[in-house]
Design goal:
The protein contains ten helices and 15 strands. The chain has helices at about 5-15, 40-55, 70-80, 110-120, 135-150, 165-175, 205-210, 215-230, 315-330, 340-360; strands at about 35-40, 60-65, 85, 100-105, 125-130, 155, 180-190, 235-240, 255-260, 265-270, 280-285, 290, 305, 310, 360-365. The chain binds nicotinamide-adenine-dinucleotide.
Length: about 375
């Protein structure tokens, strides 16, 4: 298993290595882009790998895992060759593999920075799961390393490709109900009990998760407020509630926060690991309201405008996100879920945690 200490020595060696140029697609625009998944946990297994089979412009071409048993099972299931199978130590050899265009980082949060930077230095474009990192400093480092290596970086904000969300963004932008005055947004779930030693416990460990409910799912509520307003919050005021001090000894269980936006819009948000049912947003405007509930699920999301339900197709959000990234790479354009977008969320979450700690409102510059 990789540690951050090992990363520091690896990155020192790599810092001296030359930057590799990413592949150009101008000449072979029909070729599907090869994705390598780093970390074959629940999200990769249950969502991303199946979604890759539904994409138009991408294919599952490689895997990176610390488990030889998983490697063998995935090779069989998806026809992945041994030469496109890596572990966390020999991962940097991916630089020599022309079948891999994109590295999709699906690891515990504190490992995002390491593998994003190693992938960029190997000349691969990077799609990195949310939250982008565990600190603002890391997020900045990731964007600057990807820029330096001339590779694209995007964050796995799947909701930005979901048709009901896109319709709500349109209603907000076109002021369907007039100017938005207030947004309520919340996302949470009840965190189950894992036996000690279960790898999935990393979400409860500060070293790996960097935070609790806020970093994991509160980020969806934050994203919704940012893309509905099209503005950056100028200040936050937050407080934390903890009922299970043993389970949530290291990370936040429940956080409530409000954000003031430059136009005067106020957002009230909440997130929790303590109970279920929180999965919605509502935008209140001069002449009515619109929103979604459920809002942030993989499927079955629903939107409303006034008293009417909005019918939009149910799609695979991960497939849409990956096809969009393929298009960004092919057209050499900027992703709407770029590294800078991830960095902005990190800055706001950092301010939320600082507001919790100080009990005071926190300005965001
Ligand atoms: P998971 O625990 O199921 O999988 C994590 C993987 O990392 C496992 O394969 C594990 O073996 C591997 N790993 C490597 N080193 C590890 C270490 N030191 N400790 C623990 N695991 C280690 O987690 P997941 O639910 O697949 O989440 C992975 C990432 O995806 C997280 O950043 C999470 O926030 C994100 N995520 C995003 C969504 C979304 O909807 N976009 C949904 C779930 C998770």
């Amino acid at each position: 298993m990789n540690t951050r200490r090992q990363f520091l020595s690896v990155s020192a060696t790599l810092a001296a290595a030359s930057q590799l140029a990413p592949h150009s697609f101008a000449a072979d625009s029909d070729r599907k882009l090869g994705f390598a998944l780093v970390g074959l946990g629940r999200l990769s297994t249950n969502q991303i790998a199946p979604a890759l089979q539904k994409t138009k412009n991408c294919k599952l071409a490689g895997i990176v895992t610390g488990s030889p048993e998983k490697a063998e099972a995935w090779q069989k299931q998806y026809g992945i060759s041994q030469k496109s199978t890596y572990n966390y130590r020999n991962f940097d050899q991916i630089a020599d593999n022309p079948d891999i265009d994109v590295v999709y980082v699906v690891l515990p949060n504190s490992m995002h920075e390491e593998f994003t930077i190693r992938a960029a230095r190997a000349g691969k474009h990077v799609l990195c799961e949310k939250p982008m990192s565990v600190s603002v400093a890391e997020a900045k480092q990731m964007t600057s390393e990807c820029e330096k290596a001339k590779v694209k970086l995007a964050i796995g904000y799947r909701c930005q490709f979901e048709p009901h969300h896109i319709e709500c963004m349109r209603m907000a932008k076109e002021k369907r109900f007039g100017a938005i005055r207030q947004i309520d947004a919340s996302f949470g779930f009840r965190f189950g009990d894992y036996p000690l030693g279960d790898l999935r416990r990393w979400r409860l460990e500060m070293e790996y998760a960097g935070g609790g409910a806020l970093m994991d799912v509160g980020i969806y509520a934050l994203q919704a407020c940012r893309y509905l307003t099209g503005e950056e919050p100028k200040s936050v005021m937050a407080r934390e509630i903890k009922t299970d001090h043993e389970k949530f000894a290291e990370v936040d269980e429940t956080i409530l926060w409000s954000m003031d936006f430059p136009s005067g819009i106020v957002a009230n948000c909440s997130t929790t690991y303590g109970f279920s049912g929180m999965n919605q947003f509502t935008a209140y405007a001069d002449n009515g309201k619109f929103g979604m509930e459920p809002a942030f699920s993989y499927e079955g999301n629903r939107a409303f405008a006034g008293n009417s339900t909005i019918e939009k197709p149910q799609i695979d959000q991960f497939a849409a996100e990956m096809d969009d990234f393929a298009n960004v790479i092919r057209t050499d354009s900027k992703s709407k879920v770029s590294g800078e977008e991830g960095l902005r969320d990190m800055i706001v979450m950092d301010a939320i945690y600082k507001s919790v700690a100080s009990g005071k409102s926190r300005k965001i510059s």
